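Course assignment 3, question 2. Fill in each field.
Student: A.L.
Task: Predict the tertiary structure for the chain below.
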Amino acid sequence: MIPFIVISTTYIEFLTYHVSNFINFPAAIMKEIMKKILPYFCVLILMTSCKNDDVIVPQCTEVTNIQSSNITFNSVSLSWTDANASASFSIEYGISGFLPGTGTLVSSTTPNLDLSGLLANTPYDIYVQSVCSTTNLGMQSNVFSFLTLPPLVVPQFLPNLSDLNIYMGDLEDLTPTVYAFNYELTTPLFTDYSNKQRLIMLPLGQSMQFIDDGFPEFPDGTVISKTFYYNIDDRDESLGKTIIETRLLIKMNGSWELGNYHWNSDQSDAVLATDAVNLPVSYIDEEGESIDIDYVIPSQQDCFTCHSNAGNETPIGPRLRTMNLNNQLQELIDLNYLAGVADVSSISKLPDWTDASNYGREERARAYFDVNCAHCHSVGGFCEIQSTLRLQYETAFDDTNIFNQRFSILNRMQEYIQGFSMPLIGTTRVHTEGYALIESYLNSL
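Answer field:
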């Protein structure tokens, strides 16, 4: 600012002399002109100087409304709201609890940012600060936190089950990874009254492709698991469980491969094994009766015997018609896990063998045969040569040979004799309820 200007005669004469010489104008006349206009010129200078001194630069404001989206196991997309006319942003992040100034610094010229290279299943804190200039910074934002997703499932037979990332937290809780689909079957396979947890885990971003009511086309990298366990007391599941084994099917290079993990006694992990193991198990059933079972974990070869067709390893349970219950197929479509079909009503449903209200005796008995027996008693199955029985649900009755073999079926199901009773593998006792249905059905023929 110019606080005061003294307009002296000498100063006027000085200006008059130089201006008159420059424009070749009489000095006397120019002197009078300068006396009149110079005060106005000085006032103009004074006003301009004051105006420039009064300009106030707005304080850079704090960002608000920080949000996260597209969170994966190693990345996240961040965005926030900024009210500044023009600003860049300084972002600091690190594992939750880090002290500001010790984290990782990045910058952005827009109110959004994609971070990658993060650790899986890890909580992170983030701070954002607006930068309007090097001397004009906004307040640092409040801390914003997010959690990355668990690590991806590993589609390999590694030594320990925990290495495959199928479960989150303590393994004994059997809490599936977020990448797993937990499914049930309309009619499940009988295995000495054990409980089973069934999971399908697809490679990230890929889908099963619909073919028909049977198996979909699974992409390479698919992992199918089935975990067998007994509740300590079926009347109160909160008392815990005894986990026996986890059987895996992994699709690699267009073919399925089998593996079996045996759980340790403290239920902290399971180990890949190939040999059969006899394991005594005790539990209390729903009627309060104490049950003792000599459970047999099958060998690698035993698994192949049932899970094979024409020499190729294959799943047994997860056909679409067998999973068609409790809106599961629609869930698979909604999650983009199943593609190629829009209307699940076009997919048939295998009957529930226990549902006498909605299905007839023959439908239920044929469904029971389909799940428990047909994988061996079918074209390409293990018993194709040894037996004329063809027990797939869709096989016409006259082509099944059920009537001709009805007495043999009853004989092999009514009591357990190792190496003779049916099913040949996977059971050590008679399925009382299942046998009652089959006996009633065969006697009605």
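Instructor remarks: The first strand starts at residue 64 and ends at 69. The first helix runs from residue 9 to 23.
Grade: pending
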